[in-house]
Amino acid sequence: MRLPIITLFILFSAATVAQAQTPELYVFKDERKEHLKAAKQARAVAREKAVQNDFYMRVRTQTSISQAKMEIAMKKTHDAEIKVTDMNGNALATVYKGELTEGQHEFYFEPEGDIRKPFVCQLLLDGKTEAMKVVKFNSF
After folding, report:
1. CA–CA separation, 136 vs 68, rounded Å?
2. pLDDT digit string (tens) for 96-124?
3. How far apart are CA 61 and CA 136, in angstroms?
4. DSSP bridge partners of 107
5. Rounded distance, CA 49 to CA 17, Å?
6. Alpha-carbon distance 44 to 122, whole Å?
7. What is d(CA 57, CA 55) in angstroms, rounded to the nearest whole number?
8. What is the pTM of this model?
């Protein structure tokens, strides 16, 4: 049985391409596995560190209404201050200042002017900066 020349060419070129790509593909898979393993370990360390803290802070942006929602969970009562600054450290707003009791708290920040620049939300507990989250609203 004779195969047409075009069929032989396709089979030969497919085998050559597969043979040439195989080693690089395996290297990429191994690097990806190592990267995912390192990222998983980093997340576990961050989660463990967050559990040891007296608080948990999460910041979400709602671009449609130009608002940032700060969710803070406190394990203990602390004297707290929540500030928003620009990337240079210039104070833009003091969202809250007072005593934060144990439990869940929500605070809102509505920036004025250019919302495309990043903001930094700072949580100060007992006079020490405990958390800083960079917030960037989606630009259209």
Report:
1. 9
2. 999 999 989 999 988 887 777 888 888 88
3. 8
4. 70
5. 48
6. 23
7. 7
8. 0.58
Evaluate the CA torsion angle 123, 40, 38, 60 in order and state its sign.
Answer: negative
**Residues 18-59 pLDDT 10s:** 444 455 555 567 788 888 889 888 877 876 776 567 788 888
Paired residues of 84 in beta bridges: 93, 121
Give the fold, CATH level 3, of 54-135. Answer: Immunoglobulin-like (2.60.40)
Q: Which of 67, 78, 84, 95 is nearest to 122 (CA)?
A: 84
CB 37 within 8 A of CB 45: no
Distance CA 36, CA 115 (A): 34
Q: With contact defined as beta carbons under 8 Å apart, do 75 and 102 qualify? A: yes
Tokens representing 28 are 């990429």
3-state helix, strand, coil in the chain (%, to 5): 35, 40, 25
Confidence band, pLDDT 50/70/90 cuts, at residue 16: very low
